[in-house]
Amino acid sequence: MLDAAGEQRLLRQSIAVTVIVSLFGVVFGLLSGSLSIVFDGVFSAIDAAMSGLALLVSRLVTTGDNRRFQFGYWHIEPMVLAFNGGTLMLLCFYAFLNAVDSLLAGGRALAFDWAIAYAVIVCVTCFGMFFYEQRRNRSIGSDFVRLDAQSWLMSATITSALLIAFGAAIAVQGTEWERLTPYVDPVILAVLTLGLAFVPVRTVRKALQEILLITPPELDRKVRKVMERIVAKYDFRSYTSYVAKVGRAQFIEIHVAVTPDWPLSSVAAADSIRREIGDAIGGEGPQRWLTIDFTADPRWL
């Protein structure tokens, strides 16, 4: 089961570190004249905003009953994930256009001492946060933390590439290749943004599937397998099942068709069968919405 308290605590820590890295990036980017570093700082700023939104949603989905949102706030979670991933993709596209514009303008002169200092510090920080969140999320099991860790990895990859590029540019100072150093910053920015634009695609696709209530095949197979065994065991006529996953919530609706003379001694007997089905499906908790009814009229299926 998802550890909501651990998820919220980890997201708060990530937001604090991200804000620091973002300010660090913007300041050093302006000092060094590097669009790549400014992009890195803006990327971190947007990531901090997205993490804050994820934290808000994490708190909402663990709140109690609400008469206006009687099915809970589960539907907000995939919306945030889709918005987060889509924003990162758009940011990469915009940065790529800036890189192309800089290339066409003849590149940019950089203060490499500031750039190297920034890259080393932020690279260590980003990789540290990525491995820390990955390790903590093994016990938490949060999609939000997983996406946040992915963002830290993206930031670490960007900064590592910057460090390598800046180091190479310093190495060619005083050689015949020195005239190419103004192109280092826009070239590496273009390459990084093209590659990173596709990283959140999987998260966005998964979130859109949940927003559109597309049935998850694995959960559907599990419910059908359980119900086929139950139908055979109790000699039911048939059944229909409907499943959906929205965020961390699972919605399962099962209608069981029985014969008109099927012996039902009491409501407690029906509840016993419901418990058997629920236990076989698993995942009991506030995030599982399970409805099971019995009918002798096929129109109710």
In short:
The protein is mainly α. Helix content is 66%, strand content 9%.
Key structural traits:
single chain; 2 domains; 9 helices; Alpha-lytic protease prodomain-like; mainly alpha; Alpha-Beta Plaits; 301 residues
Task: Kindly describe this structure.
With 301 residues, the protein is mostly helical. It has helices spanning 4-32, 35-60, 76-104, 112-140, 143-171, 184-196, 201-211, 217-234, 267-281; strands at 238-246, 249-257, 288-295. The protein has a three-stranded mixed beta sheet with strand order 1-2-3. Helix 9 links the parallel strand 2 (249-257) and strand 3. Helix 3 (76-104) packs antiparallel against helix 6 and helix 3 (76-104) runs antiparallel to helix 7. The two termini are 31 Å apart. The mean pLDDT is 82.
Topology (SSEs and partners):
Layout lengths: L3 H29 L2 H26 L15 H29 L7 H29 L2 H29 L12 H13 L4 H11 L5 H18 L3 E9 L2 E9 L9 H15 L6 E8 L6
Helix pairs in contact: 1-2, 1-4, 2-3, 2-5, 3-6, 3-7, 4-5, 5-6
Shape, please? elongated
Helical stretch tally: 9
| Overall tally of domains | 2
- How would you write the strand order of the largest sheet? 1-2-3
Gyration radius, in Å: 26 Å
The CATH topology of the largest domain, please?
Answer: Alpha-lytic protease prodomain-like
**Beta-strand percentage range:** 5-15%
Low-confidence stretches: none
Corresponding CATH architecture of the largest domain: Up-down Bundle
| Helix share bin | 55-70%
Which homologous superfamily in CATH is the superfamily of the largest domain? Cation efflux protein transmembrane domain
Helix and strand composition category? mainly alpha
DSSP strand tally? 3
Q: Write the element-wise H/E pattern from the N-terminal end onward.
A: HHHHHHHHEEHE
Distance between the termini: 31 Å
CATH class of the largest domain: Mainly Alpha
Mean pLDDT: 82
What's the oligomerization state?
single chain
Largest sheet: 3 strands, mixed
